[in-house]
Amino acid sequence: MQYLKEHERKMRLAFNSLDRNNDGVIETSEIIDALKSLGIHISEAQAEKILQSIDSDGTMTIDWDEWKYYFYLHPATSISEIAHFWKRSTVHSLKSRKMKLSAGFEQMIKEGGVRSLWRGNGINVLKIVPETALKVGAYEQYKKWLSFDDAKIGIMERFIAGSLAGVTAQTCIYPMEVLKTRLAVGKTGQYSGMIDCGKKLLKQEGVRAFCKGYIPNFLGIIPYAGVDLAVYEFLKNYWLEHYARGSLDPGIMILLGCGTLSHTCGQMVSFPLNLIRTRMQAQALKEKGATVSMIHLIQDIYNKEGKRGFFRGLTPNIIKVLPAVGISCVTYEKVKGHLGLI
User: Fold this and answer.
1) Separation CA 166–CA 323 (nearest Å)
2) Is residue 220 exposed (0-12), middle (13-18) or buried (19+ Cβ within 10 Å)?
3) Hey, which residues does 26 pair with through a beta bridge?
4) ∠ at Cα 321 (234, 94), nearest 5°?
5) Long-range pairs, 284-290, Cβ under 8 A, ≥24
6) Which of 180-184, 210-214, 320-324 has the highest mean pLDDT?
7) Those residues with Cβ within 8 angstroms of residue 209's Cβ, 6 or more apart along the chain or in another chain
8) Is the pTM here over 0.90, yes or no?
9) Count of beta carbons in the 10 Å neighbourhood of residue 233
């Protein structure tokens, strides 16, 4: 709570220093003058672009509520930090995605060292164990329930079984999902560990904090888990039927290819909802316990970032598919074989 109060105090000071005519709103000319005083010269069009990225009601001015909401989700608080942030993210927003990704790594290492790249990984590993067990077990059970008279199950039944399995698993472990996100986006020293994070969330935001983002997560896991599991099994079975030559073991490379493609398809169809879920999970406590609704967040992303804003972060998600899915799929198939489930 003390951290949030201090963060808001700094945001208010920055807002007041930009609002030079003390009318309660920041205008384009004030942005130009503020950056000019720091040696950064921008055009009126660039200043308007900065203003539009924060202005959520279309008035072409920034009031305190808009300023506070925008910078609750960004670490910058002083005028110099905000100017640097604007310069990199708005004025020079045409940089390549590769540069943005590398800049993200650079910022994380600078803020918390190499260890910050694995921040939240402990709770992530603990979460995956019950989540995967529940998802795989539920998937096999749902397939049995959807298979009538031992008929061969089709891709639609696999999609339904996968969606139900994903919802079942995510519902059971969702509080751990929130903890993982908070630990990952928190600053160095903000939380001493997952238990400390859980205690602070409970004390500052109540039990409801552990359910933030559940609705978009619920809506997103249906297409993601359904597509992922259905496409994976369809591709694997297709290869076994046409190229296996009597073998029931596709081999590691085939499993890796099937898993990578299926997981990528699942990510593509569900990523916008996953993005909204993550942003809702990462919200800090605001005045009077107010939070931003899913609909408001969707409107805000669209107004400030356009359609591309819903796919921000998709590249690193796809990059991590190969090792993560490779290990998961191969382990899944080997365990099924040992248990006689194939």
Assistant:
1) 21
2) buried
3) 62
4) 125
5) 284/4, 284/7, 284/72, 284/73, 285/1, 285/4, 285/204, 285/205, 286/68, 286/69, 286/72, 289/205, 289/206
6) 210-214
7) 178, 201, 202
8) no
9) 20
Give me the residue label for tokens 């888990």: 225
Domains and CATH numbers, the chain: 2-94 (1.10.238.10), 115-339 (1.50.40.10)
Between CA 57 and CA 61 the distance in angstroms is: 9
Mean pLDDT, residues 92-108: 58
Beta strand residue intervals within 44-119, DSSP E: 62-63
Please report, to the nearest 10 degrees, the dihedral formed by the alpha carbons of residues 224, 227, 231, 232 taken in order: 30
Q: Identify the H or E element spanning 26.
A: strand 25-26
Most confident option among 34-43, 61-70, 86-95, 229-238: 229-238
Single-letter amino acid, residue 314 = L
Do 332 and 136 form a contact (C-beta atoms < 8 A)?
Answer: yes
Token pair, residue 121, equals 């990984």
Reference 279, options 72, 21, 39; nearest CA is 72
How would residue 130 be classed by pLDDT, with cut points 50, 70 and 90? very high
Distance CA 121, CA 176 (A): 12
Kindly provide the residue ranges of all beta strands, DSSP E only, lying in 37-168, ordered along the sequence.
Answer: 62-63
In DSSP terms, 62 is beta-bridged to: 26
DSSP 56: S
Encoding tokens for residue 73? 């989700």
For the residues of 187-207, what is the DSSP string, one character each? PTTT-SSHHHHHHHHHHHH-G
